TrEMBL record:
One function term, GO molecular function aspect: protein serine/threonine kinase activity
SMART domains according to UniProt: LRR_TYP
Transmembrane segment boundaries: 216-243
Protein name: Inactive receptor-like protein kinase At1g64210
Top-rank lineage group of the source organism: Eukaryota
Keywords linked to the UniProt accession: ATP-binding, Leucine-rich repeat, Membrane, Nucleotide-binding, Phosphoprotein, Repeat, Signal, Transmembrane, Transmembrane helix
Subcellular location: Membrane
This protein's encoding gene: LOC108826704
Species this chain originates from: Raphanus sativus (Radish)
Length: 567
């Protein structure tokens, strides 16, 4: 009873807060449970611990004694709204607050003194508001503070000597501050103080970690060099070895400033996208993040594919998504949006969910669910030498093949039966055959054909991929599953290297079928060789040279299912 009463109380508080604004919020009503269902609300135990309402159109004063009654609140994000006036003094009640995001509003008045009392604060962002007056010395009380952003306000006077041992990011740029940078803050990059009347006498130090996205051009150059010089895989490993990268600011300037590889990191720059960049979500999901969240989250490079770099991004609430930064998009905004909308509508357990997309002049992003088990490519070929690769047994391979075929059926049903994947390959297939990277080929520059081994012979421009060419690529994946070999340069028993499809056709023509199977599954005691032979015949049917001879993917699903049902 106590449990639900406390939660009910928190819920009433939020409804009270909302009643001061004339805007509807997704699923915020008395009848639905607030935890997990209300936009931006997260609970822990019987309390609401996080309220994140970025860019929802909150307008006017922050109503006092509403949200501040959520005494267990740890994260409050009201960024990117049109909130104005002073911060109510009752913010002092939010004793448990660790993250406060109020940037990009129209808040004004002196630095809210009450904030210095929130001893648990780790991140404080008041940037891009109209605050004025001096920055108080009392900020030194926030000994846990890690990030302080007061940029783009009208703060004036000298910068106090802040002794904040845990501070590793500060931005005071573009205010009206005067004097010198105090000793305690001289460890930070000078750009953190730019746009003021400050005498900067400090020497710039090179910061080691964390890397900023400002260094992303450097990472990209490095990865390009790797791709040219070393194998792609080792490059990915090298980049990953740099550890976590901070995605922050400068997203939009990336392409135009490759020289910024030498730009010293330090503060982060708020995004100001006059090109109208907007993140679009699918499925009526809680907007637990916005583009600024993405930009300020911890990111790790998963790899660099033909469509761009893929990042694993860990959000403030510790949820994980995958962000693909699409380069060489040839489609215009309208076409891009239409394609993404079409992809976003495809929902199936064997289709990797496109959660959101973002389009601006300089950046095109696609946001997906993260599959921690990695791709089929990794399961089949990956991590050898670094870790003990877990053997992938025949059952698992059959499950993946069935799942991926079902996913492809669903994809081909999309867009009134006209949707094409265009880039079916093992690195785009995840847990239990879930297919990722749908429909990107049509909006991107054509992929280099010769290198992949998955593309059907008739495809010279991957933007013109067809459902029949998808079936061909799927057939290559089936053969890869059966042999455990890479589609290009598959090494035969006799040490020759040839294209996987050609090799299997040759072997089968000589009736040495058993030779092609991966020893890992062939040595299993279940006696599955017959099933493997059947699967190989399905794979070979899919890779028929003449497109009209390839089966429809729905028929492929049936044939794969029949492998077992004939038992
Ligand atoms: N949603 C995801 N969850 C987990 N890993 C992913 C996800 N999406 C991609 N990856 C992995 O990230 C790495 C890079 O992926 P990316 O799609 O950029 O390149 P690719 O699949 O090698 O080539 P391509 O660009 O042609 O698809 C690959 O190892 C891929 O398996």
């Amino acid at each position: 009873l106590i449990f639900s009463e406390t939660l009910e109380n928190d819920k009433r508080v939020l409804l009270d807060f909302l009643s001061h604004f004339t805007l509807p919020l997704h699923r915020w009503n008395q009848s639905s449970p607030s935890c997990h269902h209300w936009t931006g609300v997260t609970c822990s135990g019987n309390r609401i611990v996080s309220v994140r309402l970025p860019a929802v159109g909150l307008n006017g004063l922050i109503p006092p004694f509403t949200i501040t009654r959520l005494s267990s609140l740890k994260t409050l994000s009201l960024r990117n709204n049109q909130l104005s006036g002073e911060l109510p003094s009752d913010f002092v009640n939010l004793k448990n607050l660790t993250h406060l995001y109020l940037q990009r509003n129209r808040l004004s008045g002196p630095f809210p003194a009450t904030l210095s009392e929130l001893k648990n604060l780790k991140v404080l962002d008041l940037s891009n508001n109209d605050f004025n007056g001096s920055i108080p010395n009392s900020l030194s009380r926030l000994t846990r503070l890690r990030v302080l952003n007061l940029a783009n306000n009208s703060f004036s006077g000298d910068i106090p000597d802040l002794h904040l041992p845990n501070l590793h990011q500060i931005d005071l740029s573009n205010n009206k501050l005067t004097g010198a940078v105090p000793k305690s803050l001289q460890r930070f990059n000078t750009s953190a103080f730019s746009g003021n009347n400050i005498i900067i006498t400090v020497k710039e130090k090179k910061r080691k970690t964390p890397l900023g996205l400002r260094q992303l051009p450097f990472l990209l150059i490095l990865s390009a060099a790797c791709v040219l010089g070393v194998s792609g895989l080792s490059c990915i490993i090298m980049i990953t070895c740099f550890g976590k990268t901070r995605i922050s600011g400068k997203f939009r300037k990336r392409d135009s400033s490759s020289s910024s590889s030498s730009t010293p990191p330090g503060n982060w720059t708020s995004r100001d996208d006059e090109e109208g960049g907007k993140i679009i979500f699918f499925g009526g999901k809680n907007h637990l993040f916005d583009i600024d969240d993405l930009l300020s989250s911890s990111a790790e490079v998963l790899g660099k594919g033909a469509f761009g770099t893929t990042y694993k991004v860990t959000m403030e609430d510790m949820s994980t998504v995958v962000v693909k930064r699409l380069k060489e998009v040839v489609a215009g905004r309208r076409e891009f949006e239409q394609q993404m909308e079409m992809i976003g509508m495809i929902r199936h357990e064997n289709v990797a969910e496109l959660k959101a997309y973002y389009y601006s002049k300089d950046d095109k992003l696609a946001v997906y669910s993260y599959y921690p088990q990695g791709s089929l490519f990794e399961l089949l070929h990956g991590k050898r030498g670094m870790y003990d690769r877990v053997a992938l047994d025949w059952e698992a391979r059959l499950r993946i093949a069935t799942g991926a075929a079902r996913g492809l059926v669903k994809i081909h049903e999309g867009n009134n039966g006209r949707c094409v994947h265009g880039n079916i390959k093992s690195s785009n297939i995840f847990l239990d055959g879930c297919i990722g990277d749908i429909g990107l080929t049509t909006i991107m520059r054509s992929l280099p054909h010769s290198t992949t081994g998955y593309h059907a012979p008739e495809i010279t421009d991957t933007r013109r991929s067809t459902q029949a060419s998808d079936v061909y690529s799927f057939g290559v994946v089936l053969l890869e599953i059966l042999t455990g070999k890479w589609p290009v340069n598959a090494e035969t028993k006799h040490g020759e290297k040839m294209d996987l499809v050609t090799w299997i056709r040759n072997v089968v023509a000589k009736e040495w079928t058993g030779e092609v199977f991966d020893m890992e599954i062939l040595s299993e005691s279940g006696g599955f060789e017959e099933e493997m032979v059947e699967m190989m015949q399905i794979g070979l049917a899919c890779v028929a040279v003449k497109q009209q001879e390839r089966p429809h993917i729905a028929h492929v699903v049936k044939m794969i299912q029949d492998i077992r049902s004939t038992d």
